[in-house]
Amino acid sequence: MTTADRGRVLPHRRGFLGGLCSCSLLGMAACATTPANEPPMTSGYKPAASTDEGGLWHVMNRVEGEIKRSRHLIRDPAWDAYLRDITTRLSADFSNDMRIYLMRTPYFNASMAPNGMMQVWTGLLLRVDNEAELAAVLGHEMGHYMQRHSLAKVRDARARADFATVLGLGLGAAGSLAGLAVMAGHFSFSREQEREADDIGLQLMAKAGYAPMAASEVWQQIMEEAKADPSPKNDNVMFATHPSSEERMTTLRAKAAETGVQGEPYAERYREKVRSIRFMLLEDELRLRQYERSLVLLQRLQKETPGDGELIYFEAEVYRLRAGQNDAKTAEETYERAVLAQNAPPQAWRSLGLIQRRDGRHEAAGQSFKKYLDLRPDAEDRAIIASYMEKTS
Amino acid sequence: MTRFAASLRRLAAVAIVLGLSACTAYSLVPPMANDVANFRVEPDIAWNKANKLRVDSSAALASWTADGPGLNNVIFIGGVKDGTPVLTVQGDTGGTKDALVFRKDMSPSEIVELWEAAITKLNQTSIAKASNIQPTQFGGMPGFKFEFSYTNKDEVERSGLGYAAVKDGRLYMIFYSGTKLHHYGLRLASAQKMMETAQIRG
Questions:
Q1: ipTM of the predicted structure?
Q2: A259 near A206, Cβ under 8 Å?
Protein backbone atom coordinates (compact mmCIF):
# COMPACT_ATOMS: atom_id res chain seq x y z
CA MET A 1 0.00 0.00 0.00
CA THR A 2 1.42 3.35 -1.01
CA THR A 3 1.32 6.33 1.26
CA ALA A 4 -1.28 7.85 -0.99
CA ASP A 5 -3.38 4.71 -0.80
CA ARG A 6 -3.02 4.65 2.92
CA GLY A 7 -4.20 8.21 3.06
CA ARG A 8 -7.31 7.37 1.16
CA VAL A 9 -7.88 4.05 2.76
CA LEU A 10 -7.57 4.53 6.43
CA PRO A 11 -10.21 7.12 7.11
CA HIS A 12 -12.56 5.72 4.52
CA ARG A 13 -12.77 2.32 5.91
CA ARG A 14 -14.12 3.67 9.10
CA GLY A 15 -16.84 5.51 7.35
CA PHE A 16 -20.50 6.00 7.96
CA LEU A 17 -21.39 2.57 6.74
CA GLY A 18 -18.31 0.99 8.21
CA GLY A 19 -16.16 -1.24 6.06
CA LEU A 20 -15.76 -4.81 5.16
CA CYS A 21 -14.17 -6.41 8.19
CA SER A 22 -10.76 -7.59 7.22
CA CYS A 23 -10.56 -10.09 10.00
CA SER A 24 -8.18 -12.20 8.01
CA LEU A 25 -5.61 -9.45 8.26
CA LEU A 26 -4.79 -10.55 11.74
CA GLY A 27 -6.44 -13.87 11.47
CA MET A 28 -7.65 -13.50 14.97
CA ALA A 29 -9.69 -10.39 15.56
CA ALA A 30 -13.40 -10.66 15.96
CA CYS A 31 -15.12 -7.73 14.33
CA ALA A 32 -17.86 -7.54 16.88
CA THR A 33 -15.56 -7.07 19.84
CA THR A 34 -15.84 -3.81 21.68
CA PRO A 35 -12.71 -1.81 22.28
CA ALA A 36 -12.51 -0.33 25.73
CA ASN A 37 -14.13 3.08 26.01
CA GLU A 38 -11.89 6.13 25.98
CA PRO A 39 -12.84 9.30 27.86
CA PRO A 40 -14.89 11.56 25.57
CA MET A 41 -13.16 14.32 23.65
CA THR A 42 -13.16 17.88 24.94
CA SER A 43 -13.33 20.77 22.51
CA GLY A 44 -9.96 22.23 21.57
CA TYR A 45 -8.20 19.08 22.75
CA LYS A 46 -4.79 18.21 21.31
CA PRO A 47 -2.93 15.16 22.55
CA ALA A 48 0.65 15.39 23.74
CA ALA A 49 3.06 14.40 20.98
CA SER A 50 4.73 11.83 23.22
CA THR A 51 1.56 9.77 23.64
CA ASP A 52 0.23 7.06 21.38
CA GLU A 53 -2.71 9.31 20.63
CA GLY A 54 -0.33 12.12 19.69
CA GLY A 55 1.48 9.72 17.37
CA LEU A 56 -1.80 8.69 15.82
CA TRP A 57 -2.72 12.31 15.20
CA HIS A 58 0.70 12.87 13.68
CA VAL A 59 0.12 10.03 11.22
CA MET A 60 -3.32 11.36 10.37
CA ASN A 61 -2.00 14.90 9.95
CA ARG A 62 0.32 13.57 7.27
CA VAL A 63 -2.58 11.81 5.61
CA GLU A 64 -4.55 15.05 5.79
CA GLY A 65 -1.74 16.82 3.99
CA GLU A 66 -2.17 14.36 1.12
CA ILE A 67 -5.92 14.85 1.11
CA LYS A 68 -5.40 18.60 0.81
CA ARG A 69 -3.30 18.06 -2.31
CA SER A 70 -5.61 15.44 -3.81
CA ARG A 71 -7.06 16.05 -7.27
CA HIS A 72 -10.21 14.39 -5.99
CA LEU A 73 -10.72 17.19 -3.47
CA ILE A 74 -13.48 19.58 -4.54
CA ARG A 75 -12.12 23.03 -3.87
CA ASP A 76 -15.27 25.06 -3.58
CA PRO A 77 -15.43 27.65 -0.79
CA ALA A 78 -19.24 27.72 -0.98
CA TRP A 79 -19.46 24.00 -0.32
CA ASP A 80 -16.84 24.22 2.42
CA ALA A 81 -18.88 26.96 4.09
CA TYR A 82 -22.11 25.00 3.73
CA LEU A 83 -20.69 21.86 5.32
CA ARG A 84 -19.04 23.94 8.00
CA ASP A 85 -22.37 25.60 8.78
CA ILE A 86 -24.03 22.25 9.29
CA THR A 87 -21.36 20.96 11.67
CA THR A 88 -21.39 24.26 13.55
CA ARG A 89 -25.12 23.98 13.89
CA LEU A 90 -24.74 20.44 15.19
CA SER A 91 -22.02 21.37 17.65
CA ALA A 92 -20.50 24.81 17.84
CA ASP A 93 -18.05 23.51 20.46
CA PHE A 94 -16.51 20.80 18.30
CA SER A 95 -16.98 22.27 14.85
CA ASN A 96 -13.77 24.27 15.09
CA ASP A 97 -11.81 21.10 15.85
CA MET A 98 -12.83 19.56 12.55
CA ARG A 99 -11.83 20.07 8.95
CA ILE A 100 -14.23 18.83 6.30
CA TYR A 101 -13.05 17.71 2.86
CA LEU A 102 -15.49 17.09 0.04
CA MET A 103 -14.02 14.35 -2.13
CA ARG A 104 -15.11 13.63 -5.68
CA THR A 105 -15.78 9.95 -5.19
CA PRO A 106 -19.12 8.62 -6.41
CA TYR A 107 -19.84 6.26 -3.55
CA PHE A 108 -21.88 6.80 -0.42
CA ASN A 109 -19.58 7.52 2.45
CA ALA A 110 -18.34 9.94 5.04
CA SER A 111 -15.55 9.29 7.50
CA MET A 112 -13.89 10.83 10.49
CA ALA A 113 -10.22 10.50 11.38
CA PRO A 114 -9.13 10.78 15.02
CA ASN A 115 -7.49 14.17 14.44
CA GLY A 116 -10.74 15.78 13.31
CA MET A 117 -10.32 15.31 9.55
CA MET A 118 -13.71 14.51 8.08
CA GLN A 119 -14.19 13.36 4.52
CA VAL A 120 -17.49 13.55 2.72
CA TRP A 121 -17.78 11.73 -0.59
CA THR A 122 -19.83 13.18 -3.41
CA GLY A 123 -21.80 9.93 -3.78
CA LEU A 124 -23.31 10.78 -0.41
CA LEU A 125 -24.55 14.16 -1.63
CA LEU A 126 -26.57 12.46 -4.36
CA ARG A 127 -28.03 9.98 -1.94
CA VAL A 128 -29.43 12.18 0.76
CA ASP A 129 -32.67 13.99 0.10
CA ASN A 130 -32.35 16.91 2.42
CA GLU A 131 -30.04 18.76 4.76
CA ALA A 132 -31.31 16.86 7.79
CA GLU A 133 -30.20 13.57 6.23
CA LEU A 134 -26.78 15.03 5.49
CA ALA A 135 -26.65 16.33 9.05
CA ALA A 136 -27.49 12.82 10.29
CA VAL A 137 -24.38 11.45 8.58
CA LEU A 138 -22.15 14.32 9.69
CA GLY A 139 -23.52 14.10 13.23
CA HIS A 140 -22.81 10.38 13.29
CA GLU A 141 -19.21 10.98 12.24
CA MET A 142 -18.87 13.74 14.83
CA GLY A 143 -20.07 11.20 17.37
CA HIS A 144 -17.13 8.93 16.52
CA TYR A 145 -14.78 11.87 17.00
CA MET A 146 -16.33 13.05 20.25
CA GLN A 147 -16.12 9.55 21.72
CA ARG A 148 -12.59 8.99 20.38
CA HIS A 149 -13.59 5.71 18.84
CA SER A 150 -10.57 5.56 16.55
CA LEU A 151 -8.18 5.76 19.48
CA ALA A 152 -10.04 2.93 21.17
CA LYS A 153 -9.71 0.89 18.03
CA VAL A 154 -5.99 1.53 17.68
CA ARG A 155 -5.35 0.67 21.30
CA ASP A 156 -7.41 -2.44 20.85
CA ALA A 157 -5.46 -3.34 17.70
CA ARG A 158 -2.18 -2.80 19.52
CA ALA A 159 -3.26 -5.01 22.36
CA ARG A 160 -4.02 -7.67 19.80
CA ALA A 161 -0.68 -7.09 18.05
CA ASP A 162 1.17 -7.42 21.38
CA PHE A 163 -0.79 -10.54 22.09
CA ALA A 164 0.04 -11.87 18.66
CA THR A 165 3.73 -11.14 19.21
CA VAL A 166 3.65 -13.12 22.41
CA LEU A 167 2.15 -15.96 20.47
CA GLY A 168 4.86 -15.59 17.83
CA LEU A 169 2.48 -14.70 15.02
CA GLY A 170 5.04 -12.25 13.65
CA LEU A 171 3.21 -9.13 12.61
CA GLY A 172 6.41 -7.40 11.61
CA ALA A 173 6.04 -3.73 10.76
CA ALA A 174 2.50 -3.82 11.99
CA GLY A 175 3.89 -3.16 15.43
CA SER A 176 4.74 0.40 14.46
CA LEU A 177 2.20 3.08 15.16
CA ALA A 178 1.68 3.78 11.47
CA GLY A 179 1.27 0.08 10.86
CA LEU A 180 -1.23 -0.16 13.66
CA ALA A 181 -3.10 2.85 12.36
CA VAL A 182 -3.36 1.22 8.96
CA MET A 183 -4.34 -2.10 10.48
CA ALA A 184 -6.94 -0.52 12.67
CA GLY A 185 -8.34 1.18 9.64
CA HIS A 186 -9.20 -2.21 8.27
CA PHE A 187 -11.62 -2.87 11.07
CA SER A 188 -15.12 -1.60 11.32
CA PHE A 189 -16.15 0.21 14.40
CA SER A 190 -17.85 -2.15 16.79
CA ARG A 191 -21.62 -2.25 16.79
CA GLU A 192 -21.60 -0.57 20.17
CA GLN A 193 -19.49 2.27 18.79
CA GLU A 194 -21.79 2.62 15.81
CA ARG A 195 -24.82 2.75 18.08
CA GLU A 196 -23.14 5.31 20.28
CA ALA A 197 -22.31 7.46 17.24
CA ASP A 198 -25.91 7.05 16.04
CA ASP A 199 -27.21 8.21 19.42
CA ILE A 200 -24.92 11.22 19.52
CA GLY A 201 -25.79 12.15 15.95
CA LEU A 202 -29.47 11.96 16.79
CA GLN A 203 -29.06 14.15 19.85
CA LEU A 204 -27.06 16.72 17.93
CA MET A 205 -29.69 16.80 15.19
CA ALA A 206 -32.59 17.22 17.59
CA LYS A 207 -30.81 19.99 19.45
CA ALA A 208 -29.99 21.79 16.19
CA GLY A 209 -33.59 21.66 15.02
CA TYR A 210 -33.09 19.06 12.28
CA ALA A 211 -35.72 16.38 11.82
CA PRO A 212 -34.22 13.41 13.73
CA MET A 213 -36.30 10.98 11.68
CA ALA A 214 -34.00 11.74 8.75
CA ALA A 215 -31.31 9.47 10.24
CA SER A 216 -33.40 6.33 9.74
CA GLU A 217 -34.49 7.51 6.30
CA VAL A 218 -30.87 7.57 5.13
CA TRP A 219 -30.53 3.92 6.06
CA GLN A 220 -33.77 3.02 4.38
CA GLN A 221 -32.64 4.61 1.11
CA ILE A 222 -29.25 2.95 1.17
CA MET A 223 -30.81 -0.42 1.85
CA GLU A 224 -33.23 0.01 -1.05
CA GLU A 225 -30.32 0.67 -3.37
CA ALA A 226 -28.30 -2.23 -2.05
CA LYS A 227 -31.24 -4.60 -2.44
CA ALA A 228 -31.60 -3.59 -6.10
CA ASP A 229 -27.95 -4.39 -6.84
CA PRO A 230 -27.68 -7.86 -8.38
CA SER A 231 -23.87 -8.07 -8.22
CA PRO A 232 -22.60 -10.97 -6.10
CA LYS A 233 -20.38 -8.80 -3.97
CA ASN A 234 -23.41 -7.00 -2.69
CA ASP A 235 -24.13 -9.99 -0.50
CA ASN A 236 -20.64 -9.80 0.92
CA VAL A 237 -20.72 -6.19 1.87
CA MET A 238 -23.94 -4.56 2.83
CA PHE A 239 -25.60 -7.49 4.40
CA ALA A 240 -22.62 -9.49 5.56
CA THR A 241 -21.06 -6.60 7.41
CA HIS A 242 -24.27 -4.98 8.47
CA PRO A 243 -26.61 -7.78 9.38
CA SER A 244 -28.39 -5.38 11.68
CA SER A 245 -28.98 -2.63 9.13
CA GLU A 246 -32.71 -3.06 9.30
CA GLU A 247 -32.61 -3.21 13.06
CA ARG A 248 -30.42 -0.11 13.11
CA MET A 249 -32.89 1.74 10.94
CA THR A 250 -35.78 0.67 13.18
CA THR A 251 -33.86 1.67 16.29
CA LEU A 252 -33.05 5.07 14.84
CA ARG A 253 -36.69 5.60 13.97
CA ALA A 254 -37.80 4.69 17.50
CA LYS A 255 -35.13 6.87 19.10
CA ALA A 256 -36.00 9.75 16.81
CA ALA A 257 -39.61 9.48 17.95
CA GLU A 258 -38.43 9.46 21.57
CA THR A 259 -36.74 12.82 21.16
CA GLY A 260 -40.18 14.36 20.67
CA VAL A 261 -38.61 16.78 18.22
CA GLN A 262 -40.28 17.22 14.85
CA GLY A 263 -37.49 19.34 13.40
CA GLU A 264 -36.98 20.57 9.87
CA PRO A 265 -35.68 18.57 6.90
CA TYR A 266 -34.56 21.70 4.97
CA ALA A 267 -35.15 19.87 1.71
CA GLU A 268 -35.46 22.76 -0.68
CA ARG A 269 -32.32 24.59 0.33
CA TYR A 270 -30.37 21.34 0.17
CA ARG A 271 -31.63 20.60 -3.35
CA GLU A 272 -30.73 24.12 -4.42
CA LYS A 273 -27.24 23.59 -3.09
CA VAL A 274 -26.72 20.23 -4.80
CA ARG A 275 -28.20 21.38 -8.11
CA SER A 276 -25.07 23.39 -8.90
CA ILE A 277 -22.93 20.24 -9.08
CA ARG A 278 -25.59 17.60 -9.69
CA PHE A 279 -24.83 17.09 -13.40
CA MET A 280 -21.21 16.25 -12.61
CA LEU A 281 -22.27 13.95 -9.77
CA LEU A 282 -24.71 12.12 -12.02
CA GLU A 283 -22.10 11.76 -14.77
CA ASP A 284 -19.76 10.21 -12.20
CA GLU A 285 -22.55 7.92 -11.05
CA LEU A 286 -23.32 6.84 -14.60
CA ARG A 287 -19.70 5.97 -15.32
CA LEU A 288 -19.81 3.34 -12.60
CA ARG A 289 -22.36 1.43 -14.68
CA GLN A 290 -24.13 0.10 -11.64
CA TYR A 291 -27.40 0.27 -13.51
CA GLU A 292 -29.86 -1.06 -10.95
CA ARG A 293 -28.52 1.06 -8.13
CA SER A 294 -28.54 4.12 -10.32
CA LEU A 295 -32.13 3.51 -11.37
CA VAL A 296 -33.28 3.26 -7.75
CA LEU A 297 -31.44 6.48 -7.02
CA LEU A 298 -32.75 8.37 -10.06
CA GLN A 299 -36.33 7.25 -9.59
CA ARG A 300 -36.21 8.30 -5.96
CA LEU A 301 -34.76 11.70 -6.87
CA GLN A 302 -37.55 12.15 -9.41
CA LYS A 303 -40.14 11.52 -6.72
CA GLU A 304 -38.66 14.46 -4.86
CA THR A 305 -38.59 16.70 -7.93
CA PRO A 306 -41.05 15.40 -10.54
CA GLY A 307 -40.62 16.55 -14.10
CA ASP A 308 -36.94 17.39 -13.74
CA GLY A 309 -35.53 17.00 -17.27
CA GLU A 310 -31.97 16.46 -16.08
CA LEU A 311 -32.99 13.52 -13.90
CA ILE A 312 -35.18 12.03 -16.63
CA TYR A 313 -32.25 12.33 -19.04
CA PHE A 314 -29.94 10.43 -16.72
CA GLU A 315 -32.55 7.72 -16.20
CA ALA A 316 -32.73 7.34 -19.99
CA GLU A 317 -28.93 7.17 -20.10
CA VAL A 318 -29.00 4.19 -17.75
CA TYR A 319 -31.35 2.31 -20.07
CA ARG A 320 -29.29 3.20 -23.14
CA LEU A 321 -26.04 2.06 -21.57
CA ARG A 322 -27.51 -1.08 -20.01
CA ALA A 323 -28.77 -2.06 -23.46
CA GLY A 324 -30.80 -5.00 -22.20
CA GLN A 325 -34.00 -6.35 -23.67
CA ASN A 326 -36.42 -3.47 -24.41
CA ASP A 327 -33.95 -0.97 -22.99
CA ALA A 328 -33.55 0.87 -26.29
CA LYS A 329 -37.30 1.44 -26.50
CA THR A 330 -37.52 2.48 -22.84
CA ALA A 331 -34.54 4.79 -23.30
CA GLU A 332 -36.09 6.44 -26.35
CA GLU A 333 -39.41 7.00 -24.58
CA THR A 334 -37.58 8.40 -21.58
CA TYR A 335 -35.44 10.77 -23.70
CA GLU A 336 -38.61 11.97 -25.37
CA ARG A 337 -40.05 12.76 -21.95
CA ALA A 338 -36.80 14.45 -20.95
CA VAL A 339 -36.65 16.84 -23.89
CA LEU A 340 -40.20 17.97 -23.18
CA ALA A 341 -39.41 18.61 -19.51
CA GLN A 342 -37.78 21.63 -17.94
CA ASN A 343 -33.99 21.86 -17.74
CA ALA A 344 -33.28 18.87 -19.99
CA PRO A 345 -29.64 19.03 -21.06
CA PRO A 346 -28.91 19.23 -24.83
CA GLN A 347 -27.21 15.85 -24.49
CA ALA A 348 -30.68 14.29 -24.33
CA TRP A 349 -31.04 15.06 -28.07
CA ARG A 350 -27.62 13.60 -28.77
CA SER A 351 -28.42 10.35 -26.98
CA LEU A 352 -31.84 10.15 -28.58
CA GLY A 353 -30.07 10.44 -31.92
CA LEU A 354 -27.69 7.63 -30.99
CA ILE A 355 -30.62 5.34 -30.19
CA GLN A 356 -32.40 6.23 -33.45
CA ARG A 357 -29.17 5.78 -35.42
CA ARG A 358 -28.61 2.36 -33.87
CA ASP A 359 -32.13 1.42 -34.94
CA GLY A 360 -31.47 2.52 -38.53
CA ARG A 361 -33.84 5.51 -38.40
CA HIS A 362 -31.33 7.85 -39.95
CA GLU A 363 -33.62 10.75 -40.75
CA ALA A 364 -34.93 10.96 -37.18
CA ALA A 365 -31.39 10.56 -35.88
CA GLY A 366 -30.18 13.37 -38.11
CA GLN A 367 -32.88 15.68 -36.75
CA SER A 368 -32.01 14.81 -33.17
CA PHE A 369 -28.31 15.41 -33.77
CA LYS A 370 -29.09 18.72 -35.44
CA LYS A 371 -31.15 19.78 -32.44
CA TYR A 372 -28.24 18.83 -30.16
CA LEU A 373 -25.73 20.86 -32.13
CA ASP A 374 -28.13 23.80 -32.40
CA LEU A 375 -28.53 23.82 -28.64
CA ARG A 376 -24.84 23.25 -28.03
CA PRO A 377 -22.90 24.87 -30.84
CA ASP A 378 -19.60 24.51 -28.98
CA ALA A 379 -20.08 20.77 -28.30
CA GLU A 380 -16.68 19.13 -27.99
CA ASP A 381 -17.99 16.08 -29.90
CA ARG A 382 -19.28 18.22 -32.79
CA ALA A 383 -16.94 16.59 -35.33
CA ILE A 384 -18.09 13.03 -34.72
CA ILE A 385 -21.76 14.02 -34.45
CA ALA A 386 -21.45 15.92 -37.73
CA SER A 387 -19.96 12.77 -39.28
CA TYR A 388 -23.06 10.80 -38.20
CA MET A 389 -25.23 13.45 -39.82
CA GLU A 390 -23.29 13.26 -43.08
CA LYS A 391 -23.82 9.52 -43.21
CA THR A 392 -27.52 9.87 -42.46
CA SER A 393 -28.21 12.62 -45.01
CA MET B 1 -19.42 1.94 2.95
CA THR B 2 -20.40 -0.70 0.54
CA ARG B 3 -18.47 -0.22 -2.65
CA PHE B 4 -15.27 1.00 -1.20
CA ALA B 5 -14.30 -2.18 0.55
CA ALA B 6 -14.81 -4.13 -2.63
CA SER B 7 -12.89 -1.47 -4.48
CA LEU B 8 -9.90 -1.97 -2.24
CA ARG B 9 -9.71 -5.61 -3.11
CA ARG B 10 -10.00 -4.79 -6.76
CA LEU B 11 -7.43 -2.04 -6.49
CA ALA B 12 -4.92 -4.51 -5.16
CA ALA B 13 -5.55 -6.72 -8.16
CA VAL B 14 -5.54 -3.98 -10.71
CA ALA B 15 -2.33 -2.18 -9.82
CA ILE B 16 -1.40 -0.13 -12.85
CA VAL B 17 -4.28 -1.01 -15.07
CA LEU B 18 -3.45 1.04 -18.07
CA GLY B 19 -0.11 -0.64 -17.92
CA LEU B 20 -2.15 -3.83 -17.72
CA SER B 21 0.80 -5.29 -15.95
CA ALA B 22 2.89 -4.85 -12.86
CA CYS B 23 5.99 -6.52 -11.51
CA THR B 24 6.40 -8.50 -14.66
CA ALA B 25 9.26 -9.10 -17.06
CA TYR B 26 9.58 -7.12 -20.28
CA SER B 27 10.99 -7.97 -23.70
CA LEU B 28 12.60 -5.46 -26.00
CA VAL B 29 10.61 -4.48 -29.09
CA PRO B 30 13.04 -3.13 -31.69
CA PRO B 31 12.12 -0.20 -33.97
CA MET B 32 11.02 -2.25 -36.97
CA ALA B 33 7.85 -3.85 -38.33
CA ASN B 34 6.13 -5.88 -35.62
CA ASP B 35 3.05 -8.07 -35.46
CA VAL B 36 1.33 -7.47 -32.16
CA ALA B 37 -2.18 -8.33 -30.93
CA ASN B 38 -3.65 -8.58 -34.44
CA PHE B 39 -1.98 -5.37 -35.59
CA ARG B 40 1.05 -4.74 -37.74
CA VAL B 41 2.92 -1.67 -36.51
CA GLU B 42 6.22 -0.07 -37.28
CA PRO B 43 7.55 1.84 -34.27
CA ASP B 44 10.35 4.33 -34.81
CA ILE B 45 11.75 3.86 -31.31
CA ALA B 46 12.37 0.77 -29.17
CA TRP B 47 9.56 -0.22 -26.78
CA ASN B 48 9.33 -2.79 -24.01
CA LYS B 49 6.61 -5.40 -24.12
CA ALA B 50 5.11 -6.77 -20.89
CA ASN B 51 5.35 -10.53 -20.91
CA LYS B 52 2.40 -11.04 -18.61
CA LEU B 53 -0.86 -9.15 -18.31
CA ARG B 54 -3.33 -8.93 -15.49
CA VAL B 55 -6.39 -8.42 -17.59
CA ASP B 56 -8.40 -10.63 -19.91
CA SER B 57 -10.33 -9.92 -23.07
CA SER B 58 -11.80 -11.76 -26.01
CA ALA B 59 -9.31 -9.66 -28.01
CA ALA B 60 -5.59 -10.20 -28.35
CA LEU B 61 -3.85 -7.83 -25.91
CA ALA B 62 -0.43 -6.30 -25.56
CA SER B 63 1.08 -3.59 -23.38
CA TRP B 64 4.22 -1.67 -24.29
CA THR B 65 6.11 0.99 -22.45
CA ALA B 66 9.04 3.14 -23.43
CA ASP B 67 10.09 4.57 -20.07
CA GLY B 68 8.25 2.48 -17.46
CA PRO B 69 4.72 1.13 -16.92
CA GLY B 70 3.62 3.98 -14.70
CA LEU B 71 5.11 6.60 -16.99
CA ASN B 72 3.88 5.81 -20.48
CA ASN B 73 2.18 2.91 -22.21
CA VAL B 74 0.77 1.76 -25.48
CA ILE B 75 -2.09 -0.70 -25.17
CA PHE B 76 -3.15 -2.87 -28.09
CA ILE B 77 -6.63 -4.39 -28.00
CA GLY B 78 -6.95 -6.43 -31.16
CA GLY B 79 -10.49 -7.57 -31.90
CA VAL B 80 -13.02 -7.52 -29.04
CA LYS B 81 -15.91 -9.83 -29.91
CA ASP B 82 -19.47 -8.59 -29.99
CA GLY B 83 -21.16 -9.06 -26.59
CA THR B 84 -17.95 -9.44 -24.58
CA PRO B 85 -16.20 -7.02 -22.22
CA VAL B 86 -13.41 -4.85 -23.57
CA LEU B 87 -11.28 -5.79 -20.57
CA THR B 88 -11.77 -7.63 -17.32
CA VAL B 89 -9.42 -7.75 -14.41
CA GLN B 90 -8.35 -11.31 -13.72
CA GLY B 91 -10.23 -12.66 -10.71
CA ASP B 92 -12.42 -9.58 -10.48
CA THR B 93 -15.93 -10.03 -9.17
CA GLY B 94 -16.56 -6.34 -9.14
CA GLY B 95 -18.76 -6.08 -12.17
CA THR B 96 -16.34 -5.19 -14.96
CA LYS B 97 -17.59 -8.18 -16.95
CA ASP B 98 -21.14 -6.94 -17.12
CA ALA B 99 -20.44 -3.25 -17.26
CA LEU B 100 -17.84 -3.02 -20.00
CA VAL B 101 -19.44 -5.03 -22.76
CA PHE B 102 -18.77 -4.07 -26.38
CA ARG B 103 -21.59 -4.41 -28.90
CA LYS B 104 -20.92 -4.28 -32.61
CA ASP B 105 -23.69 -1.74 -33.21
CA MET B 106 -22.05 0.83 -30.93
CA SER B 107 -21.27 4.22 -32.40
CA PRO B 108 -17.84 5.81 -31.86
CA SER B 109 -19.46 8.00 -29.18
CA GLU B 110 -20.63 4.91 -27.32
CA ILE B 111 -17.28 3.15 -27.67
CA VAL B 112 -15.61 6.20 -26.17
CA GLU B 113 -18.16 6.18 -23.33
CA LEU B 114 -17.26 2.55 -22.82
CA TRP B 115 -13.58 3.42 -22.62
CA GLU B 116 -14.32 6.18 -20.14
CA ALA B 117 -16.21 3.70 -17.98
CA ALA B 118 -13.35 1.21 -18.32
CA ILE B 119 -10.84 3.74 -17.05
CA THR B 120 -13.14 4.69 -14.21
CA LYS B 121 -13.87 1.15 -13.14
CA LEU B 122 -10.46 -0.37 -13.65
CA ASN B 123 -8.51 2.49 -12.14
CA GLN B 124 -10.99 3.26 -9.36
CA THR B 125 -11.08 6.91 -10.16
CA SER B 126 -13.83 9.43 -10.61
CA ILE B 127 -11.66 11.78 -12.61
CA ALA B 128 -11.67 10.31 -16.11
CA LYS B 129 -12.78 12.15 -19.18
CA ALA B 130 -12.61 11.49 -22.92
CA SER B 131 -12.93 14.33 -25.39
CA ASN B 132 -12.42 15.54 -28.93
CA ILE B 133 -13.64 12.46 -30.80
CA GLN B 134 -12.78 12.82 -34.47
CA PRO B 135 -13.46 10.55 -37.42
CA THR B 136 -10.23 9.33 -38.96
CA GLN B 137 -8.72 6.40 -40.81
CA PHE B 138 -7.38 3.71 -38.53
CA GLY B 139 -5.94 0.33 -39.33
CA GLY B 140 -6.63 0.83 -43.01
CA MET B 141 -10.34 1.59 -42.60
CA PRO B 142 -12.70 4.32 -41.36
CA GLY B 143 -12.34 4.71 -37.63
CA PHE B 144 -11.99 7.45 -35.06
CA LYS B 145 -9.58 8.94 -32.57
CA PHE B 146 -10.07 10.68 -29.25
CA GLU B 147 -8.18 12.15 -26.34
CA PHE B 148 -8.62 11.24 -22.71
CA SER B 149 -7.31 12.14 -19.29
CA TYR B 150 -7.57 10.57 -15.88
CA THR B 151 -6.13 10.77 -12.40
CA ASN B 152 -5.43 7.53 -10.62
CA LYS B 153 -5.34 6.76 -6.94
CA ASP B 154 -1.69 7.74 -7.14
CA GLU B 155 -2.96 11.28 -7.77
CA VAL B 156 -0.86 11.60 -10.91
CA GLU B 157 -2.61 13.24 -13.82
CA ARG B 158 -2.32 11.29 -17.07
CA SER B 159 -3.19 12.11 -20.65
CA GLY B 160 -4.05 9.74 -23.44
CA LEU B 161 -4.76 9.40 -27.13
CA GLY B 162 -6.74 6.52 -28.60
CA TYR B 163 -7.54 5.18 -32.05
CA ALA B 164 -10.25 2.65 -32.79
CA ALA B 165 -12.26 1.02 -35.53
CA VAL B 166 -14.82 -1.77 -35.81
CA LYS B 167 -13.99 -4.38 -38.44
CA ASP B 168 -16.16 -7.42 -39.11
CA GLY B 169 -18.03 -6.77 -35.87
CA ARG B 170 -14.88 -6.71 -33.76
CA LEU B 171 -13.39 -3.75 -31.98
CA TYR B 172 -9.75 -2.84 -32.59
CA MET B 173 -8.15 -0.15 -30.46
CA ILE B 174 -4.71 1.21 -29.67
CA PHE B 175 -4.11 3.71 -26.88
CA TYR B 176 -1.17 5.71 -25.80
CA SER B 177 -1.13 7.31 -22.33
CA GLY B 178 1.42 8.81 -20.00
CA THR B 179 1.96 11.23 -17.16
CA LYS B 180 0.75 14.63 -18.25
CA LEU B 181 3.67 16.46 -16.74
CA HIS B 182 6.40 14.86 -18.82
CA HIS B 183 6.22 11.32 -20.14
CA TYR B 184 3.08 11.68 -22.25
CA GLY B 185 4.65 14.36 -24.41
CA LEU B 186 8.00 12.60 -24.43
CA ARG B 187 6.82 9.72 -26.68
CA LEU B 188 3.65 11.18 -28.14
CA ALA B 189 5.04 11.80 -31.63
CA SER B 190 6.40 8.26 -31.93
CA ALA B 191 3.27 6.67 -30.48
CA GLN B 192 0.95 8.73 -32.65
CA LYS B 193 2.86 7.93 -35.81
CA MET B 194 2.76 4.23 -34.94
CA MET B 195 -1.00 4.32 -34.24
CA GLU B 196 -1.75 6.27 -37.41
CA THR B 197 0.12 3.79 -39.58
CA ALA B 198 -1.02 0.62 -37.78
CA GLN B 199 -2.70 -2.05 -39.89
CA ILE B 200 -5.36 -4.42 -38.62
CA ARG B 201 -4.42 -8.01 -39.37
CA GLY B 202 -7.36 -9.75 -37.70
A1: 0.86
A2: yes
